[in-house]
Design brief:
- This protein has about 375 residues and is α+β, with helices and mostly antiparallel strands.
- The chain has a single domain, classed as Nucleosome assembly protein (Arylsulfatase, C-terminal domain, 2-Layer Sandwich).
- It is built from 12 helices and 12 strands.
- A 6-stranded antiparallel beta sheet has the order 5-6-7-8-12-11. Strands 1-2 form a two-stranded antiparallel ribbon. Strands 3-4 form a two-stranded antiparallel ribbon.
- Helix 2 runs antiparallel to helix 3.
- The protein is globular, with a radius of gyration of 28 Å.
- The N terminus and C terminus are likely disordered.
């Protein structure tokens, strides 16, 4: 709000009138009820200040704007640092993929990490040595390759991912053997998720990609709402489905209700619930002032949240999602949050879950989905 424009109305007496509420004109004691001060009341308060004080407030807001611009530069440098360390992590992710897919058998040194309550059972299964001196195991374990259903298990057990999992997706996701992450460089900010598949009976693609575009600058309509990098757009890829194998659509029979064919049963193709809709997101209008309908906005908000979650949590910590340790950590965090909420007022907002997952925001005057893509643990306090 421009404090000079806001100052154009009335004096301190009009401000007092603005703070009266209800039919009986009960005055709200802002000292007793600090959360009751709405933006309108705050604007009326500033408008009632003497001219020189209002000028000082404008100077303070200008300083705040400079601080916000510095914060944007901070996050840009954090992004550059994230790219640097992602390159250092990449060899570890490549070795992880080789192990889970059965292309690399860990040495004793590489596998020297205790798994609670399982090591003794594993040792009992080792009965003899092979001719080359390596340990030989009994049963069907020697026939297993890598870590079976590694990524499928993650998608089936993580709540956010299984919500978009369709009935026909399981057999396809068995062939998913890796998810890799790549960051945009140069002047752009964003990332690409690549899903690597073995040959399967459903599509000919070996890699399916999803790109997310991000921005890291204050919005001109709401500069003080800036909270770090934000996902604002995404783009999928074409899936080359084999004939009759497209799981994102289904055939349904419907009775015609109007026209010359009224009462006739016809077969129509409709959208089916499937994770693979993830690669065909609805387009967002290029015009920043154009509205997005509610259904599209809800879909994109969920899409942005999943993309952010895969990037920030699932890809870097995949084995912990596979073992269930990450989910247990989230549940414990939620329980601690519930206990704390019992000790505070009902009006207090926020929980550990809010910190763990990205915030969804809609810009003022623009019905467009945006997701905060910054790491909440790195937020400035």
């Amino acid at each position: 709000m421009d404090v000079e424009k806001a100052a154009g109305k009335g004096d301190s007496s009009s401000s007092e009138e603005d703070m009266e509420g209800g039919e009986e004109g009960e005055v709200i004691d802002l000292g007793t009820f600090p959360h009751a001060m709405t933006s309108m009341m705050a604007g009326a308060h500033v408008a009632s200040l003497p001219y020189k004080v209002r000028r000082r407030v404008k100077a303070l807001k200008k300083l705040q704007m400079e601080a916000t611009e510095l914060e944007a530069k901070f996050y840009q440098e954090v992004y550059a640092l994230e790219i640097k360390y992602h390159k250092l992590h990449s060899p570890l992710y490549a070795k992880r993929a080789a192990i889970t897919d059965g292309n690399h058998e860990p040495t004793d040194v590489e596998a020297e990490f205790p798994l609670a309550d399982t090591d003794s059972e594993d040792e009992d299964k080792i009965t003899e040595l092979n001719e080359d001196g390596s340990k030989k195991e009994e049963g069907t374990e020697k026939e297993l390759k890598g870590v079976p259903s590694f990524w499928l298990t993650i998608f089936q057990t993580e709540e956010m991912l299984c919500e978009v999992f369709g009935d026909d997706d399981e057999i396809i996701m068995e062939s998913l053997h890796d998810i890799t992450l790549a960051f945009d460089e140069a002047d752009s900010m964003g990332f690409t998720l690549s899903f690597h598949f073995h040959p399967n009976d459903f599509f000919t693609n070996t890699i399916l990609t999803k790109h997310y575009s991000m921005k890291c600058k204050p919005d001109k309509d709401d500069p003080f709402g800036f909270e770090g990098p934000e996902i604002y757009k995404c783009e999928g890829c074409k899936i080359n489905w084999k004939e009759g194998k497209n799981v994102t659509v289904k055939q349904v029979k419907k009775k015609v209700k109007k026209g010359k064919d009224k009462g006739k049963i016809v077969t129509k193709e409709v959208k089916a619930e499937s994770f693979f809709n993830f690669f065909s997101p609805p387009a967002i209008p290029e015009d920043p002032e154009a509205d997005v309908d509610d259904e599209t906005q809800m879909y994109l908000q969920q899409d942005f949240q999943i993309g952010h979650f895969l990037r920030e949590r699932v890809v870097p910590r995949a084995v912990l999602f596979y073992t269930g340790e990450e989910q247990e950590s989230e549940e414990e965090s939620d329980e601690e949050g519930d206990e704390e909420e019992e000790e505070v007022d009902d009006d207090d907002e926020g929980s550990d879950e809010d910190m763990d997952r990205p915030k969804l925001k809609a810009r003022k005057g623009k019905n467009r989905p945006v997701v905060d893509g910054s790491n909440p643990e790195c937020k400035q306090q």
